[in-house]
């Protein structure tokens, strides 16, 4: 009886310990796989490397897009869950790709008619140009500037050619003051 209770307790503990890990995986956002990918796969016929291309559009976990291979082309459908990706071609011979996402690379196994071989894909990285943070709307206007000093106050006036925008910066004993 004690052995049965111990076995039952262990089974319940094992089941309960699985719940948080599944919940954590479900809460994990899907990796971004949107974009143009070049797939390098091992041929099932002769083991050579075959180059394929896929354009992926991502809507949350759902994937759609277009596949181009040496023998066929057509739409794809699939999904991405966390780092795991799976998509299939909607073509006369269905090809299913399963794998893991690692930033701008993916790899795994693909299958045709129950046979499987390795594949990997790369997405070209795009250079990100840093943009300074915006604190509001930026306008470009031809301007005129003048500088003047009077006593203990310095003044810099900037105005647009149409005089719709005028700013005056003044310094005095209290520091810098902006007047618009």
Structure write-up:
This protein has 180 residues and is mainly beta. Among the domains are: 88 residues, Quinohemoprotein amine dehydrogenase alpha subunit, domain 2 (Lipocalin); 37 residues. The protein contains one helix and twelve strands. The strands form two sheets. It has an eight-stranded antiparallel β-barrel with strand order 1-2-3-4-5-6-7-8. Strand 5 and strand 6 form a beta hairpin. It is rod-shaped and about 90 Å long. The protein starts with a helix and ends with a strand. About 12% of the residues have low confidence.
Give keywords:
51% strand, Lipocalin, mainly beta, 14% helix
**What is the count of β-strands?**
12
What do we call the CATH topology of one domain? Lipocalin
Q: What is the CA-based Rg, rounded?
A: 31 Å
How many individual helices?
A: 1
How would you classify the helix and strand content by structural class? Answer: mainly beta
Main sheet summary: 8 strands, antiparallel, barrel
Gap from first CA to last CA: 87 Å
| Large-scale geometry | rod-shaped
Into which percent range does the helicity of residues fall? Answer: 10-25%
- What is the CATH architecture term of one domain? Beta Barrel
Low-confidence stretches: 4-25
CATH class of one domain: Mainly Beta
Order of strands, main sheet, comes to 1-2-3-4-5-6-7-8
């Amino acid at each position: 009886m004690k052995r049965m209770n111990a076995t039952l307790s262990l089974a319940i503990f094992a089941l309960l310990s699985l719940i948080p890990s599944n919940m954590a995986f479900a809460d994990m956002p899907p990796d971004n796989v949107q974009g143009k990918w070049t797939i390098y796969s091992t041929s099932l016929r002769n083991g050579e490397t075959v180059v394929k291309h896929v354009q992926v559009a991502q809507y949350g976990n759902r994937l759609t897009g277009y596949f181009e291979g040496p023998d066929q082309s057509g739409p794809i459908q699939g999904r991405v869950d966390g780092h795991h990706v799976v998509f299939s071609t909607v073509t006369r011979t269905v090809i299913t790709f399963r794998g893991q996402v690692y930033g701008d690379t993916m790899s795994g196994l693909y299958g045709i008619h129950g046979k499987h071989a390795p594949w990997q894909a790369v997405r070209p990285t795009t250079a990100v140009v840093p943009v300074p943070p915006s604190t509001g709307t930026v306008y470009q206007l031809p301007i005129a500037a003048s500088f003047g000093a009077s006593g203990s106050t310095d003044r810099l006036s900037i105005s647009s050619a149409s005089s719709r925008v005028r700013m005056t910066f003044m310094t005095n004993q209290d520091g810098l003051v902006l007047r618009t």
